[in-house]
Amino acid sequence: MGFERMRRGAAAALCGLALVAPLHAADDTPVPDTMAQRLLACTACHGRDGRSTLQGYVPRIAGKPAGYLFRQLRHFRDGRRPHPGMAKLLQFMTDDYLRDIAGHFATLQVPYALPLPAADPAALLQRGQQLAQRGDAALKLPACAQCHGSVLMGVAPQVPGLLGLPRDYLVAQVGAWQTRQRRADEPDCMALVARRLSSADLGAVTTWLAAQRVPDDAKPAGSAPAQAADLKALGLDCGAAR
């Protein structure tokens, strides 16, 4: 426990140092005042250009919808989405500056890393594909594609993509919805969906999502595919779907 606390503290300190960019480099060459330079604190953890790293709990932020990124930054800053490191980095930033940060990363279209080869049972992957693309009406589970877009790359401006993310991150986020550590605008249908997922189905859908190759031209859809009537048939009413 002590080691983990020290590790997190050290990581937060390193990221914090990156926020305070030096006015001049060691050889007195002026450092350009660009958003990329200012946001070295972000890319220290989220990878170059926000494309993520091999750290399974740190997501890709490049190319995400700007509205989604802004909301998450504001939630981190205001404590609505608990994360001590993110809260410290953002605590003095205004909404306007958070919008600038979100807009910067939303415009970055950098290649996705290839997924690791799936060595999981075929039945597990088939179940995951069913849940992601078609859902399970008997369990009142909508397809992920119903809200996150037909190619699962998100919907502008508010809904994030699900492809190109590590399985560990996906599992952790669904767990956060299940325990109400993450929340959306009421009625919070994501929390309801998360609580309807069994452990086996959670493992199946996150394993399948993490195993998918992201198309080269993939980007968030321009309009929400979810239909209110379809969601209501599953006993869901989504604040984010309005």
Word description of this protein:
This protein has two domains: 105 residues, Cytochrome c-like domain (Cytochrome Bc1 Complex, Chain D, domain 2, Orthogonal Bundle), CATH 1.10.760; 112 residues, Orthogonal Bundle (Cytochrome Bc1 Complex, Chain D, domain 2). The protein has twelve helices and no strands.
Q: How many helices does DSSP assign?
A: 12
Got a strand count?
0
What percentage of residues falls in helices of 4 or more residues?
A: 40-55%
Please indicate the count of domains. 2
Dominant shape: globular
Q: Spans of 5+ residues with little confidence (pLDDT < 50)?
A: 1-25
Could you name the CATH topology of the largest domain? Cytochrome Bc1 Complex, Chain D, domain 2
Largest sheet: none
CATH classification, class level of the largest domain? Mainly Alpha
Q: Which structural class do you get from the secondary structure elements?
A: mainly alpha
| Rg computed from alpha carbons, rounded to a whole number of angstroms | 19 Å
- Portion of residues in beta strands equals under 5%
Could you spell the SSE succession in H and E letters? HHHHHHHHHHHH
- Name the CATH homologous superfamily of the largest domain: Cytochrome c-like domain
> N-to-C terminal Cα separation, in Å?
43 Å
Instruction: Return the average pLDDT rounded to an integer.
Output: 85
